[in-house]
Amino acid sequence: MSDLMRDNQIMAQIQDENLGYMSDMALELAQLADDSGLTTLAYLFRMAALEASMANSVVAELDELPQQMTPH
Question: Does residue 5 belong to any structural domain of this protein?
Fold first, then answer.
């Protein structure tokens, strides 16, 4: 495996971990906001968690593309 491919895999893994962390953190903040009676802020944090989760699944799909392509 070339260094470039290895580096790309490492970067994709780091990005995946970061998006997962952001989603989890946004959900925790939403719960804290809910507990404090800040419903609108809780809603915004839930939307941020959803956005991070969707971005995470898009990244996962993009990571699978090179493996699906066949060389000519």
Answer: no
